[in-house]
Design a protein that fits this description.
Blueprint: E1 2-3, E2 9-10, H1 21-32, H2 40-48, E3 72-73, H3 75-90, E4 94-95, E5 192-193, H4 198-207, H5 220-227, E6 232-233, H6 245-254, H7 285-296, E7 300-301, H8 306-313, H9 318-321, E8 327-329, H10 334-344, E9 352-355, E10 372-375, E11 382-384, E12 390-394, H11 399-407, E13 411-412, H12 423-428, H13 436-439, E14 446-452, E15 458-462, H14 467-473, E16 482-489, E17 491-492, E18 496-504, H15 508-521, E19 528-537, E20 542-551, H16 562-565, E21 570-573, E22 576-578, H17 580-593, E23 598-607, H18 610-627, E24 635-644, H19 648-654, E25 669-678, H20 684-704, E26 708-709, H21 729-742, H22 747-750
Parallel strand pairs: 8-10, 9-10
Antiparallel strand pairs: 1-2, 3-6, 4-5, 7-8, 11-12, 12-16, 13-17, 14-15, 14-16, 18-20, 18-21, 18-22, 19-20, 19-24, 23-25, 23-26, 24-25
């Protein structure tokens, strides 16, 4: 077997020279979808047969209908079959080998470990078919038992069944039919792919599990419309699809990267003139990515690129990075965002997600399976006006770099406390900062937002233009457009007294009282900020307290913190006078340690009372010990108690309002965040269920004490919660009205399905 210099097949070699990992995996998944490597006519017969025809050599219990010539094929059967065949032809980088040997056993690496067809034998070919020849060895990359690669012999022993776990590329509990390319059809020789190493196969199958298209779920409505008048009986000439759609598929795939179904079908929308492709998965998404790539060039990345890989690995939570987008847009200008949205808005099935720094825990909020991910990380400019009163920050920036830039100028802004967290997520969710008691929520300090609307139009929302949009963005999340930059109120800021205080869990009752006292006294001293942390590690089966203490003046041991720092014993105390970037960048380093783990969070807001804080800890402790034995590899759990003085509500009202709905609530509050991370991915559902049950119990206790508050901080919320509804009916109605005004077709409600939406169907 050989190919000529152009790669054209000679002898028995099908077009193509070498299997690519993407191609082999695509091929395998096609087979899972019951797409058969037979002639288009036989595929049509198969589709027409409700029981699903399986050719000899598959499972012993399955037989071919005896009277195939009398089967009437519908137009859609034939159209689907030919479309599949068109795609199938592009996935045939095989060697066809011939040898009139006796029946051989199916190689284990082409058959699931626990397949129903485990003992299936490949039949000896009939005279009308090419006989077998041996295949390319997955272990050696050369023809088996063939010293010169031109004298093939029988299958070697290594191709027989191998039951060892490392030999199987399939999960132990899966049971599939024999792959279709092992099924015999007299009209077409059997094709054996040159399989890549098993370890890589397992990795590719796992990573592409949610991504590869499934041809079997075909849009037959289009086929019926295109070919409604055509019916043919077996034996007559098989018709070509109208509009030459099979060739259209070929061209689209040939123009795509790697000839992978995942990557391409560039003009698949030509099948029906619209967004409904025959793949049935993220319908039209390949056309969407193709159009985006044509318009934006290298700003669109596919999974063969380092840009794609880097974006995927930049998510803090494992459950986010496991989602597999079809392509990733990494815009470097607002105009690129505008161009992308202009394309996406014309393809109804082109879903998307928006990632800033990737620190969110809600699955799908910043990543997507089979859709388009916007990675805003290159929109990271930071600049301050000459007066030092306004700082423009790109939506893809992180707070650590923002503070570092501003510290060098003796300035600061209200933003996130952890330097690893992104700018846009904090601001659009409300935003808690060390400066909160002084200036309010971070969102209250937004002077202007540059936004790309659903139409692709770029607008500015500020106090004089699009005021309603600005208010909606202050807590309304990414429901109205894609924010590309923020202008923030900037103020002089030098060093501060900030750091960590470690204490024994035995002192917790004193700490609860201190937290309540600080929350009340912050109304008198707005320079104080506190995050009281209670941390559990299942490895040691113990709790400890490690609080973040900040006083935003260069004053050590201010009186407001004496109720806390005066508690003995102190396990650690590294509170020092330094700048904010030192603490933010330090937390950024700490966050890196917890990457690629499952992170889940839950939140609630309560009246300020030390007795309630004690009850919250007790309920949480019981939950942790309940689930700990059920989680492989252990679990780490953090309870964060954050005082919110009533004075913070005034800043929103004085700066054009926000969406949070907190003006109606009086009194000091404590926001609780419970955050957990663990390695055992199978435990996600268990942990989320127990988190919900735990907060239901806390809410019941708080309600009985008259201390339950409705507010749920969006950036801390679990996917089971509804933080936007917690803003109150009046604010929700305002957000919905703003959405209808700036996004009348509901693009950001329908096609950006992740995160917290507005509860409206458009």
């Amino acid at each position: 077997m050989s190919t000529n210099g152009t790669g054209e097949a000679t002898g028995h070699t099908i077009k193509g020279s070498k299997w690519d990992e993407d191609e082999i995996v695509d091929r395998v998944v096609l087979e899972e979808s019951k797409v058969y490597s037979t002639s288009p006519r036989n595929m049509a017969v198969d589709i027409a047969n409700s029981s699903g025809i399986v050719y000899p050599g598959a499972c012993p219990s399955t037989t071919v209908p005896q009277d195939k010539d009398n089967i009437t094929l519908s137009a859609e059967d034939m159209a689907v079959a030919e479309a599949i065949d068109a795609i199938d032809d592009l996935s045939t980088d095989f060697e066809i080998v011939t040898d009139e040997s006796n029946t051989e056993e199916v190689p284990s690496y082409l058959t699931p470990k626990r397949t129903k067809c485990r003992n299936t034998q490949i039949p000896k070919p009939k005279s009308t078919a090419e006989p077998f020849q041996k295949m390319i060895s997955p272990r050696t990359g050369s023809l088996n038992n063939s010293p010169d690669n031109n004298n093939p012999g029988p299958f070697p022993s290594q191709c027989a069944y191998d039951n060892s776990p490392e030999s199987s590329m399939w999960a132990d509990d899966e049971s599939w039919d024999t792959p279709s390319y092992l099924r015999y059809d007299p009209e077409r020789p059997i094709l054996y792919p040159a399989v890549p190493p098993r370890k890589k196969m397992r990795q590719r199958v796992a990573s592409l599990k949610h991504k590869v298209v499934k041809i079997a779920r075909t849009d037959l409505d289009w086929v019926k419309e295109a070919m409604a008048s055509i019916r043919i009986k077996a034996g007559e000439e098989f018709p070509r699809l109208k509009a030459n759609s099979a060739e259209s598929i070929r061209n689209g795939l040939k123009n795509s990267s790697g000839l992978s179904l995942r990557g391409g079908a560039g003009d698949i929308s030509s099948l029906n003139g619209g967004g409904n492709d025959i793949f049935g998965f993220g319908v039209g998404i390949d056309s969407c990515c193709s159009q985006l790539s044509s318009r934006l060039g290298s700003s669109v990345a596919f999974d063969s690129s380092s840009t794609y890989t880097n974006s995927q690995s930049s998510h803090w939570a494992l459950q986010q990075s496991e989602l597999i987008p079809s392509c990733i847009i990494v815009p470097s200008t607002t105009s690129e965002v505008s161009d992308a949205i202009s394309i996406i808005s014309t393809i109804e099935s082109c879903n998307f997600a928006i990632k800033g720094a990737g620190h969110g825990t809600v699955v799908g909020a910043a990543n997507i399976n089979g859709g388009v991910k916007f990675d805003m990380s290159q929109l990271n400019e930071i600049e301050t006006n000459s007066e030092g009163t306004v700082t423009r920050i790109g939506a893809g920036s992180q707070w650590g770099e923002v503070y570092e830039y501003l510290d060098n100028r003796g300035l600061s802004v209200a933003g996130g406390r952890n330097g690893d967290v992104g700018v846009a997520g904090v601001l659009l969710g409300g935003g808690i900062s060390f400066y909160g008691p002084r200036v309010g929520w971070a969102a209250d300090n937004i002077l202007n937002v540059e936004v790309v609307l659903a139409s692709g139009e770029v607008v500015n929302a500020n106090a004089t233009s699009n005021q309603d949009l600005l208010k909606a963005l202050k807590g309304g999340n990414s429901n109205f457009g894609i924010a590309t930059s923020f202008d923030l109120r900037t103020f002089p800021q030098g060093e501060m007294w900030v750091g960590y205080l470690g204490q024994s869990i035995d002192s917790r009752e004193e700490v609860f009282q201190a937290v309540a006292d600080i929350a009340s006294n912050t109304n008198e001293d707005p320079f104080a900020a506190l995050v009281a942390d209670f941390k559990f590690n299942s490895a040691t089966r113990s709790w400890l307290m490690n609080h973040t203490v900040a006083y935003t003046k260069p004053v050590a041991n201010p009186p407001i913190f004496q109720p806390l720092v005066g508690i003995e014993p102190q396990l650690t105390n590294n509170i020092v006078i330094t700048n904010i970037s030192s603490i933010a960048l330090g937390q950024k380093k700490g966050a890196k340690v917890a990457y690629n783990k499952n992170h889940l969070s839950y939140t609630g807001t309560y009246g300020n009372d030390p007795v309630l804080l004690s009850k919250i800890f007790d309920i949480s402790n019981a939950t942790v010990h309940k689930i700990m034995p059920q989680i492989n590899g252990g679990i780490k759990w953090t309870i964060m108690m954050e005082p919110f003085p009533a004075l913070m509500d005034n800043f929103g009202e004085n700066n054009g309002g926000n969406s949070l709905g907190l003006g109606a609530e009086t009194g000091d509050r404590i926001v609780i965040l419970q955050l957990t991370h663990f390695d055992d991915h199978e435990a996600n559902d268990l942990v989320e269920t127990e988190l919900r049950n735990m907060f239901d119990e806390i809410s019941s206790v708080a309600s009985e004490m008259g201390l339950l508050r409705r507010f749920q901080y969006l950036n801390y919320a679990n996917k089971q919660q509804n933080p936007i509804a917690s803003y109150g009916p009046e604010n929700v109605a305002g957000l919905q009205a703003t959405s209808k005004k700036y996004d009348p077709k509901g693009l950001f409600q329908r096609q950006a399905p992740g995160g917290f939406k507005l509860g409206m169907h458009q």
